[in-house]
Design goal:
It contains 9 helices and 9 strands. By secondary structure, it is α/β, with parallel strands linked by helices. The strands form 2 sheets. A 7-stranded mixed β-sheet has the order 1-8-7-2-5-3-4, with helices on both faces. A two-stranded parallel ribbon has the order 6-9.
Length: 251
């Protein structure tokens, strides 16, 4: 997907937002930040974070002062029709977000290709290994895409823990409540660059589990050895979680 490629000029709105809206956001959330020095001053890096709310992808950029952070966004942000669709696409494109098809297949792989390009260009990529927001504040099993990116590029992985964002913005809430949040950046996990033949499922699973353990230690969350998507399906089947409760900007 050629349109997913990012140019540095596409980050102009990101930088403008961080320097303007970000100031107001800091006053609103009063974020407590620890470990920012663990994010490399230069070169590629992966920020692997727990995922509690939509605003996670806003809290991270306003607390990383010395690097721009790219994120993936669901395909719907880029495929909307009419004026609203064009404005949404314009905004996300120019804050360094690129599309990923979460239904899987070639669309999902296109997003990973773009993520690799970001890292190969020596930039910072943010990802939530859980794949979706936690439905109950616990930490869920990580998908191996983060490990695959790390092995393919040799990018160090910085574990990230967020607190309070799910209280500020519970599922279904579009505009966050005023509530103090916190973010902690852990020490980077150094990852060797491997050839495709060396990247086995066992290696992917082992590194992913290590990343999730680091996030768990930083966040203090209870760990659940199942995917968050599976837990959400269970909750919907039990009538405890309805799709309409996840309206807004689902992750």
């Amino acid at each position: 997907m050629g349109e997913a490629k990012l140019e540095k000029s596409h980050m102009w709105l990101y930088r403008l937002s961080v320097s303007t809206v970000g100031v107001a956001a800091k006053k609103w959330f009063t974020p407590c930040v620890r470990g920012e020095e663990n994010i490399p001053e230069a070169g590629c890096a992966i920020l692997a974070s727990n995922h509690l709310a939509v605003i996670d992808d806003a809290v991270i950029p306003i607390t990383v002062r010395h690097r721009d952070v790219h994120f993936m966004g669901k395909m719907e942000y880029f495929s909307g029709k009419g004026v609203k669709g064009r404005l949404t696409r314009f905004f996300f494109t120019n804050v360094g977000v690129f599309p990923v098809d979460r239904s899987g297949g070639e669309g999902a792989e296109s997003g990973m290709v773009t993520a690799r390009e970001v890292l190969e260009n020596g930039e910072v990529f943010g990802i939530h290994p859980e794949g979706t927001r936690s439905p109950d504040g616990r930490l869920y099993k990580g998908h191996t895409g983060v490990a695959k990116l790390a092995f393919e590029t040799g990018a160090p992985v910085v574990p990230v823990a967020l607190w309070g964002t799910n209280i500020s913005q519970p599922i279904g809430v579009v505009f966050p409540h005023r509530f103090p949040v916190a973010v902690s950046y852990g020490r980077p996990i150094q990852v060797p660059r491997l050839s495709p033949e060396e990247i086995t499922y066992e290696r992917l699973r082992r590194l992913t589990d290590e990343i999730m353990r680091k996030i768990m230690v930083l966040s203090g969350q209870e760990y659940v050895d199942m995917y968050a998507q599976e837990r959400k399906r269970q909750l919907r089947e039990e009538g405890l979680l309805k799709k309409e409760e996840e309206k807004g900007l689902p992750a």
